Amino acid sequence: MVMTTKTAALGSVRGSKVAVVGGTSGIGEATAALFAAEGAEVVIGGRDEARAKAAAARIGNVKSAVIDGTDAASAHRFFETIGEIDHLVLALSGGKGAGPIATLALDDLRSGFEAKLFAHLTTLKAALPRVRASITLVSAVSARLAYAGTSGLAAINGAIEAMVRPLASELAPLRVNAVSPGVIDTPWWDAMPKDQKDGYFAQAAKGLPMARVGRPEDVAQAIVMVAANGFMTGSVVEVAGGAQLARS
To answer: Keyword Metal-binding, does the record have it (predicted)?
Structure first.
């Protein structure tokens, strides 16, 4: 069943078809699970076939397919395989680009741009002929906040967010938005030793009005809302526990 314009305006994703690229863990997996719970037909895309199938099995009632967002041929094969979709969510990310600028290796920063910014662009371009309603990019509030040691991440995510309004104008009536998470407890942090991660999360929580770090489900709710709202385009929605607010 194809989602109609009237259905989109009412804010429902039931009966729509959704692709979540980067949907094998964390925010992407939580987003795929919520779309499925709301009655959408969902396809998870990821580079590792075994991980994609495992995520699909955890969620239930979703499909999976292989896609490497940094490879145009792989992205085209993915969309040729799954066919037309109503909503595309790009939750791709890499693990590089963070650290003090004095010691940040520029090759690592380039890898970070390739794994996130260029993976978003490569996948978006491959998907365009087959997307009927919306594209939602997943960035991060590092794009706009002055966290020490995140200048590289700010550059990567800032570039993604800078594209949202021009793309929304260029691709209309296709809607383009971004959801911008703060500190979220996902596998992105797993490279950090557990005691160090726990300490960082505790410190981050103290500075937030919500007094906790985020969960993938917090971000998933915003992504589904943005996709469902047929009158919303060119927006960047923050899901950061109030990180953007000054604390006294």
So the answer is: no
41-46 and 63-66 beta bridge pairing: parallel
Q: Are strands 175-181 and 131-138 parallel, antiparallel or unpaired?
A: parallel
- Residue pair 100/149 in contact by the 8 Å Cβ criterion: yes
* Planar angle of CA 173, 158, 12, nearest 5 degrees: 35
Q: Which residue has the higher pLDDT, 166 or 93?
A: 166
130 confidence band (pLDDT: 50, 70, 90): very high
Q: Which distant-in-sequence residues (6+ apart) come within 8 Å of 55 by Cβ?
A: 23, 24, 25, 29, 32, 44, 46, 64
For the chain, which residues make up each domain, given as ranges?
5-186+216-233
User: Which CATH code fits 5-186+216-233?
Assistant: 3.40.50.720
